[in-house]
Amino acid sequence: MNRGRFIVLEGPDRVGKSTQVERLAEVLDAVATREPGGTALGAEVRALLLDHRSDGLDPRAEALLMAADRSLHVAEVVRPALAAGRHVVSDRYLFSSVAYQGAGRGLGEDRVRDLSLWAVGDLVPDLVVLLDAGDDPLTARRPGDGDRLERAGGDFFARVGASYRRQAAADPARWVVVDARADVEVVHRAVLAAVVDRLRITVERS
Ligand code: TYD
User: Fold this and answer.
1) What residues contact residue 53 under an 8 Å CB cut-off, 6+ apart?
2) For 35-84, how does the pLDDT look when each residue is reduced to its tens digit (9 = 90+)?
3) Does residue 101 have its Cβ closer than 6 Å to ligand 1?
4) pLDDT above 90: residue 149
5) What per-residue confidence (pLDDT) applies to 141?
């Protein structure tokens, strides 16, 4: 049996990632999953991480919890699905940690990447789609809104966005950048076209 393909959608908060993950997974008949929280224990880690009561969580502890969640996710969901020949579409992966903890929280992109690579036994996706909304004020975060991570404030999200663009530029064979400011359907078509083009996946319907 052929191994499935592993596709990751990345991007800042509120860029419409979850809708795009759902649409893409449906068309590819893929397993749709997400980080943090793609497993039962991971859902508990996610609740801890996003909970308002976790205010003041040390950034290193945050990075380690994200890596722990990721390790569970890869061992319990991603690798078994790929081995069974299913494609996997994940809403976020280790590139989120590089952007949010590495750049956003200032822990250092390389160290955070290494931590996550260790956590997942070096599993890297076949394709990463970056949903980029530029610096569109509609998607810019207002301090005070949202969950604990989302309330981190302005500069934080500028660093996250810059990190994503750097990661995409550093590995153009694995990354594709899609403008997420268009209509949902237009973005879906662009994501699907990128996946079909890069991975030569056959799609029965779109
Ligand atoms: P979520 O509600 O899933 O946000 P979104 O729908 O935008 O993906 O919350 C996940 C939050 O966790 C989001 O703010 C990004 C953050 N995050 C990290 O900081 N590091 C990580 O490694 C991951 C996977 C997510």
Assistant:
1) none
2) 999 999 999 999 988 886 667 889 999 999 999 999 999 999 999 999 99
3) yes
4) no
5) 47
Residue 67 and residue 119 in contact, taking contact as beta carbons nearer than 8 Å: yes
Global model pTM greater than 0.90: yes
Task: Tell me the one-letter amino acid at 188.
Answer: H
Instruction: Give the 3-state secondary structure of 47-67.
Output: HHHHCHHHCCCCHHHHHHHHH
Out of 35, 93, 100, 150, mutate this one to test ligand 1's pocket (max ligand atoms within 8 Å of CB): namely 100
Cis-peptide, bond into residue 12, ω within 30° of zero: no
The reply to whether ligand 1 has any atom less than 6 angstroms from the CB of 66 is yes
Confidence of residue 92 (pLDDT cuts 50, 70, 90): very high
More confident call, 7 vs 149: 7
Q: Is residue 90 in contact with ligand 1, taking CB distance under 6 Å?
A: no
Ligand 1 centroid to Cα of residue 36, in Å, is: 7
87 lines ligand 1 (CB under 6 A): no
State the DSSP string of 11-50: -STTSSHHHHHHHHHHHHTPEEEESS-SSHHHHHHHHHHH
Does 20 sit in the ligand 1 pocket, CB within 6 Å?
no
Burial readout 69-83 (b: 16 or more C-beta within 10 A, e: otherwise) = bbbbbbebbbbebbe
